[in-house]
Fold this protein.
Amino acid sequence: MDRFAAFVIRLRWPIFLLILAITSFFAWEARHVRFRTTISDLWPAAHPFIKVHRAYEDQYGSPLTIYVMVQVKKGDIYNPVTLEKIARITREIDSIRGVNHDQVVSITSRKVKSITLSGAEVHVENLYPRETPRSAEELAKLRDEVAGAGVIGTLVSFDGTASLISGNFLEARTDLQDLFEKLLALQERETDEAHNVYLAGQPVLLGWVRTYQREIVNIVLLSIALTFLLLYLYIRSIRLTVLPALATIVSTIWGLGFAGLLRYTLDPLILLIPALLMARTLSHGIQKVERIIELSGRQLDKQAEARTLILALFGSGTLGITTDVIGLLVIAISSIPVMQRLAIFCGFWAASIIPSVLILIPVVISIFGIPASWQVMKRLEESALARVLKTNAWLVTGWRARWVTGAFVVATIVSFIVSLHISVGDIHPGTALLWPDAAYNVAATNINKNFVGTDELYVIARVRDDDRGGDGAAAAAGPGGGGGAGSEVAALLGIRRVPILSRMLDFQRYVERNPLVRHTFSYADFFPVINRRMHGNGVKWECLPDTEESVAQFSNVLLRGTDPGDFRRFVDDRYQHANIILWLNDHRGRTLDSVLRWIRSYPRLDEANSGMELQFASGFAGVLAAVDEEVREKELLMFILATLVVAIACLVSFQSLLAATILIVPLVVTNFVVMSVMVFMEIALDVNTLPIVSVGMGVGIDYGIYLLTRILQEYRRNPDYEVANTIAIQTTGRAVFFTATIMIVCVGVWYFLSSFRFMAEMGSLLALVMGINMLGALLVVPAIISVMKPRFALSARLLVWD
């Protein structure tokens, strides 16, 4: 290490110019960074549900579905003005770029049919007539046809006061920002003294989140400015304040430039993470400043002080940063693209702290000299902070250390038990990203109150590959049909065979027994209605026909008077697969988990003789369930891998198993405590919160490494653990306390400044995380050292060469 320090000092100007050149390069590349939500980047690509969704999304729709509810303030929707408004909104949605025209549905669209009996003939016609009904008789007729069309609860509210219009959009062809702006304009235009118009759906939510992007940026910049202001007020030295500020700016440029170099498109919600990474850089920078202040009394020249800084902090700093990088890279084991990119992006950013802090600050000092800081040292030793740290040192020495350790054990047990109740996925019916009174949540609440809901889960009924011909098909052809003829008939009928349709309906009745499922519908539901119409509208005939011939006849009846694509949201053109739509109470994580467990326990799930197989799952709820399962599965694996890798890194560095354990145990317990806090704050683990919590928690290991290294260093100078703990807490601990306090203030103000619920809650949560990390380093680590009085203090590798 002495050679390395001499090398850095000797080549200080070339190294300084090299860092400057690299920083300039990354500053240029940073212009390519784009903050935009790509919805498919939030999905776990390897999950079976996503594979099913990808296979059928072009036909049955993607999660990019919008819902527009038109509600009258008085009376019902059966009046010319309201009906024309519904028809007009339907046409406007159908004209927006990127819309899937087969998936624009309302009572006025051609996709919704009315099945009526006229004499001996059954007619399938558009539910809505060519001309808007105006007379009382025409309006009454429409009301009756709506009641008989099976759209009450899905397209018309239960009380008749509202109508729902839905439209699905193709992600590759849709500009989400343009779509959101057009929807807001439509809402403003169509809302009047007689009608309210509500907007919901994933594109609308993403649009609302994007409106907070400027606010997020402004608050993050304000937090950074506040951080440097507090740093100056703490040090009262512009030159000492500039050093960590310079390192933070360089590291930020490298991180953003790396993302731009890779042409990453980053989700707006991760704008909070740069603030945390800057905090990590600042934490290491303040450790450097703290050591500069300590060295101020030695009267060293600028090269000697720079060399001493490298020798004193390079080892522990590199270990802390390495564990950060490894912990961040572990996030990449997820199959969610946005988390994989985040792991690489954040991992490089964290790694850039080595050149920006551990090398650049000593190089700057070796070139420009050391700031006069003996007055700073004197003021800090006489400040209230010194008295707080003195009390801290008193608490973790002597018999008091046992009480601190005992309290730590109790906190571990309690937090572990509470953390088991952490929720995965949404825990609110609307969205946890926005406050309950936000326009989006108000709209979602009203829609779910008046209709079966917007949370649709799709189950695909598919003809088995081994049943497109064969014995089952031959039997279906009847006693006179040969095997070849039976295969041809089966291939022609596809999903329209009685055993398959019967099993689809049986599955729907089974699913509807779950109270979390409001309603179901599939292609099979058309046949009992036609059968009833064909038999004089007798109720007893509302069942599936008995023969394949009748099914084939009824399916042809359905096609009369329809346009191509009218039934594509229910069945494919070749009748090889069909969509079973489940409307759920909500999309909360527990709801999705319960419904999927119920579906998977369907008694006839693996039954082969019906010729059909069920594939799970698609639709908005299906995709969200896949994300929840990925987070639930990978969160524990990430934690275990990160802990294991960090433990190995500490073991290799200190060459002591006990030293590594002392550092890892507080980190593990901090995880339990944070999860417990999330339970009480009603914050769930999801694709948005998991990376932020992971990045925030990594600060704790840095604090512990710096403090333990200083304790070991002081113990070798004076083999008394009480003295070593006291000196370490009053020096290195001072930097830990101040860094944590600054970050608690700077992220804590998010709660008071932000109108964006996600940012406000993350601010309060991260403030708690910083506080818990600080207490773990300043109380738990020295208390354990005081109680155990480990022997490794003289044998462990010391990461300081001063």
Observations:
- Residues 619-654 form the longest helix (36 residues).
- Residues 286 and 350 are 16 Å apart (CA to CA).
- Residues 470-483 have pLDDT under 50 and may be disordered.
- DSSP finds 32 helices and eleven strands in the chain.
